[in-house]
Amino acid sequence: MSLFLESLQLDTASGTPLFRQLYAAVKHAILTGVLPAGMQLPPSREFCHRLSISRQTVLNAYELLLAEGYLSGTVGRGTFVSVDLPDASDAPDRIAITGKRGVALTNNTRQGTPALSKRGRQFVDRASLAPVHQEKTRAFRVSMPGLDVFPFDVWARLEARRWRHHEDRLGYGDPAGYGRLRELLAVYLKNARGVNCNPEQIIITSGSQQALYLLSTVLLDPEDAAWVESPGYRGAIATLQAAQANVCHVPVDHDGLNVDYGALHYPDARLVYVTPSHQLPLGMTMSLQRRLALLAWAKQGSAWVIEDDYDSEYRYSGAPIASLQSLDKNDCVIYVGTMSKVLFPGLRLGYMVLPPALVAPVTHAKAIIDRHTAIVPQMVLADFIAEGYFGRHIKRTRKLYSQRQAALLDSIQTQLSDDLSCGASDGGLDLAVHFKMQHSEQAVVNAGLAAGLELRPLSYFLSPDAKEVSSAFSRGLLLGFSSLTEQEIYKSCLVLRDVLRSQR
């Protein structure tokens, strides 16, 4: 006990109350065996004298430890470490492992102690496939809309109006989503994307990522094969791998997903994930011939097709391309969309349009996983759409992002043409650029970070498991432009020029 008291130190400058610090120190000593079961603790006055703290501080700590069962007896008659606690020597050894983003994970090292399930380990192992941005936005962050042009004043007014009449806002809602929002989305998707659906086929999700997780879980058994584009969206790969699917990497070319390759190498796949309107990250549009070939293959093999239409609102040459779902005559395409790109990511609202046969099972799965997506943001979004703000915002940002993309294309032509060539530029919030010289992607990314740029290498989207490299793929970067003003784009391109020159 004397050694414990000599080693005990309390930090008077800490924001944690002293009795809480003392409580935590004694508790830790008991759990680790430094203070064994049955040992009598010193009188409170001895603690006061040794630590130069008030008696009330010690009494408060003792009271909390007594209440939680770590100590027994009564203050004044003697206080003892509880004999009902298990021997600390029987406690499992634990090793702290620092994971991505500094999250502390623990693995048991003794045989017979609890451990993660195989599926649980899939989530931990795939954490790096779904990184989260927490720092301030910098050039050229990908898939980030221009928050400088969002009408937050309008949104705040609509939300305040909803909260003033909150009687029916505070209970549980429909797992499928707010009915009025689903009605409005059905009309919008029909007019803007040619999606054939009624409101009952739409399920509102907490972002499109939740939609992908629900679909991976409901539609696939462990080891079922699923096609993904290569290169492609890592968030989709992460959800499929977490569902213990056999992820099959199918290359893309200038016409999009190579259906013939997938059919030849992975003929028994149960699911296909595809971004046909604007392939992520290379930007091409899937040709009509490929779309029809994919639907024919899916029909023959009774496979599901997930169409991720993540940023199709932003097409800068010609009218928006009709959705793959609009061509589906066999109810095999599931259309997934998000509000993160057209409004703002923090809203966390997505949706999926399901074939009729999937509505009930996916709705039940949604209810189990999430009960329902937050209802007030759905109501505000419904008002935002119904009162015309949504359509005006899309029209305004489509024009603005087109100008910002033009500024990026011009900057590349005038400042970076020796180092970079541009990929498809029909639409989207990002532009794929390819190295003309033998640059190391990682070296460029590191140098860019030191210069204040956030650069995403194209190889980030290429899985090491892919057996064949896409004919449309070459080393380069994916540059986000939609969150930057034209002036910021020109200045950032000058910085990028210096970075590339330093890496030649």
Q: How would you explain this protein's 3D organization?
A:
The structure is a single chain. This protein is α+β, with helices and mostly antiparallel strands and 504 residues long. It has three domains: 2-88, Winged helix-like DNA-binding domain superfamily/Winged helix DNA-binding domain (Arc Repressor Mutant, subunit A); 171-387, Aspartate Aminotransferase, domain 2; 392-502, Aspartate Aminotransferase, domain 1 (Alpha-Beta Complex). It has helices at 2-7, 18-31, 44-51, 55-67, 118-125, 152-164, 179-193, 208-219, 234-242, 259-265, 288-301, 356-370, 375-386, 389-415, 441-450, 486-502, and strands spanning 40-41, 71-74, 78-81, 94-98, 104-108, 202-205, 225-230, 246-253, 256-257, 271-274, 304-308, 333-338, 350-353, 420-422, 430-435, 456-457, 476-480. An eight-stranded mixed β-sheet has the order 6-13-12-11-10-7-8-9, sandwiched between helices. α2 packs across α4 (55-67), α3 (44-51) crosses α4 and α6 packs across α13 (375-386). The longest helix has 27 residues, at 389-415. 40% of the residues are buried.
